[in-house]
Each structure stands twice: as structure tokens, then as C-alpha cells.
């Protein structure tokens, strides 16, 4: 059985953390470790941690530079081949999903991508990114199209080595670092699609507030522009490498 590191990031939201850890403890699958990264909470988070002390394998409590800094700490602390981020307030869709998904994990894959259920305050539910609409390979799908499909970290299990090799989460993108790393990994590693709905998470927060639309759009365009430049540089590198190889071949032939 594939062992998975479940990483939970939290800060001053003890009730939500309790919900998340309860969901993990209810899973009918035991081959996982739990890593909790707390940003130095001042509420009663410590009481929740004590309540689930038998469940938690690694607990880090210290200040950080935001959610993706905390998630990077979780990546480093984790020990399993695959990671799944289930942050405070998120919960598994049922008690059997972990057992179902882990059967489909393979270290040949950089990402194993399913679906998530998002809920609004008035209990409307949405399933996305609806992986069935994508081909088996995401190589021909543009970054913008993938971004507009609302792919989020709750939708996939990620190969720890692939994430580390990609540079982990770039703190220059405080709201979209998960998509940035996801896209980079899809350019280098195999992606395996599954139809499972993995978890549920509530919509809300910074990205849902219309007042933040302008700076989120600016960050989005910067992130997509960075991806585009990275792709161009990669093509230039391989083109130059191929040109050098051809030149060496010609020189070697001439010397003969």
C-alpha cells in the first residue's frame, strides 16, 4: 500500500482544524502520516493538537511568511512519496476516499489529479476541475486554460520528489503558488487522472472578496507571464543544446 503524507496548514482557526483532523482520523485507511504546520496560533489550537496527538506524526508551530511558506515547511518535514494538502477547514469527501485514491498512486506519476467539491455559505456545491474534460496528457493545454479550470491543490496528490525538484512553492505568488508549481510539474512529469472527488473545501477568504480582484488579477498575470517566460527559456536552452551537438558532430566529421 502506498503511504501518503497528509499536510495540514493552520493559523488561529482551531475549530476548522478540529474538523479537518477529525476527517483524517475517520479514514478507513491507516497507511499515512499527518504533518501539521501551525503559524504560531494564539487561540486554542494547542488544545486541538493535544486532542489528536495520537494521529499527528509531525507538529511544527512557528511564525511563517504565509500559507505557501508553511506548506513548504510541510513538504520538507514529510517523509512519504506522495503528499496531499488538506488545510484547516477542508475535509475528505467520505471515509473511504483515501483508500480508493492510494490504490491509483504510482511513483511514475508527478501528479495524480481528481476533483474537489467547493461549497458556498448558502450551501451551493460545485465540482471542479472536472478532469474528464482533459486529455490524458496536459502538455497541450495552455497555462491560462488550466488556470481558468480552477485547479487547486485540494484536487491532486503530488509526488514529493517532483515538487521539490520544481522548486516547491514560490513565495512571490502568495495566492497562486500552488498553480505555478502544478503547471511546472505537468511540463516535466506524467499526470494521471482519476474521477474521484477527493475533498470538500469552503469558498471564501481573500480570493472570493471582490475588493481584492485588482491585485489578484495583477498577481495572476504576473504568474502566467512568468510561466510563459520559463517556457521560452526552456525552448531556447534545448535549441541551443541541439545546435551545439550538431556543430560538434560537424567538427568531428571534418577532423576525420
How would the blueprint of this fold be written?
Elements: E1 4-10, H1 14-25, E2 32-38, H2 45-51, E3 58-61, H3 67-77, E4 82-85, E5 91-92, H4 97-102, E6 109-119, E7 125-128, H5 143-148, E8 156-159, H6 160-165, H7 177-188, E9 190-202, H8 213-255
Parallel strand pairs: 1-2, 1-4, 2-3, 6-9
Antiparallel strand pairs: 4-8, 5-9, 6-7, 6-8
Helix pairs in contact: 1-2
Features:
256 residues; alpha/beta; Spore Coat Polysaccharide Biosynthesis Protein SpsA, Chain A; nine-stranded mixed beta sheet; 9 strands; 40% helix; 22% strand; hexosyltransferase activity; transferase; Glyco_trans_2-like
Task: Give an overview in words.
With 256 residues, this protein is an alpha/beta fold. The chain has one domain (4-215): Spore Coat Polysaccharide Biosynthesis Protein SpsA, Chain A (Alpha-Beta Complex), CATH 3.90.550. 40% of the residues lie in helices and 22% in strands. The chain has helices at residues 14-25, 45-51, 67-77, 97-102, 143-148, 160-165, 177-188, 213-255; strands at 4-10, 32-38, 58-61, 82-85, 91-92, 109-119, 125-128, 156-159, 190-202. Strands 1, 2, 3, 4, 5, 6, 7, 8 and 9 form a 9-stranded mixed beta sheet that branches. Strand 2 (32-38), helix 2 (45-51) and strand 3 (58-61) form a beta-alpha-beta unit. The longest helix is centred in the last third of the chain and has 43 residues, at 213-255. It is globular. The model is unreliable at 232-241 (pLDDT under 50).
Amino acid at each position: 500500500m502506498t503511504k501518503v503524507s497528509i499536510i495540514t496548514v493552520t493559523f488561529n482557526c482551531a475549530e476548522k482544524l478540529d474538523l479537518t483532523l477529525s476527517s483524517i482520523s475517520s479514514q478507513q485507511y491507516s497507511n499515512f502520516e499527518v504533518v501539521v504546520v501551525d503559524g504560531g496560533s494564539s487561540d486554542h489550537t494547542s488544545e486541538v493538537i493535544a486532542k489528536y496527538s495520537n494521529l499527528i506524526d509531525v507538529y511544527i508551530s512557528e511564525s511563517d511568511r504565509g500559507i505557501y511558506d508553511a506548506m513548504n515547511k510541510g513538504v520538507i518535514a514529510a517523509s512519504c512519496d506522495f503528499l496531499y494538502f488538506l488545510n484547516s477547514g477542508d475535509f475528505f469527501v467520505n471515509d473511504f476516499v483515501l483508500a480508493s485514491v492510494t490504490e491509483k498512486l504510482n511513483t511514475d506519476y508527478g501528479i495524480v489529479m481528481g476533483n474537489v467539491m467547493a461549497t458556498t455559505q448558502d450551501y451551493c456545491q460545485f465540482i471542479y476541475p472536472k478532469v474528464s474534460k482533459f486529455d490524458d496528457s496536459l502538455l497541450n493545454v495552455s497555462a491560462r486554460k488550466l488556470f481558468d479550470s480552477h485547479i487547486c491543490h485540494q484536487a491532486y496528490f503530488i509526488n514529493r520528489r517532483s515538487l521539490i525538484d520544481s522548486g516547491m512553492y514560490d513565495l512571490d505568488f502568495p495566492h497562486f503558488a500552488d498553480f505555478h508549481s502544478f503547471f511546472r510539474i505537468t511540463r516535466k512529469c506524467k499526470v494521471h487522472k482519476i474521477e474521484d472527488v477527493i475533498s470538500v473545501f469552503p469558498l471564501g477568504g481573500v480570493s472570493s472578496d471582490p475588493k481584492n480582484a485588482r491585485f489578484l488579477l495583477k498577481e495572476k498575470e504576473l504568474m502566467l507571464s512568468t510561466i510563459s517566460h520559463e517556457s521560452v527559456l526552456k525552448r531556447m536552452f534545448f535549441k541551443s543544446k541541439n545546435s551545439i551537438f550538431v556543430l560538434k558532430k560537424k567538427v568531428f566529421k571534418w577532423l576525420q
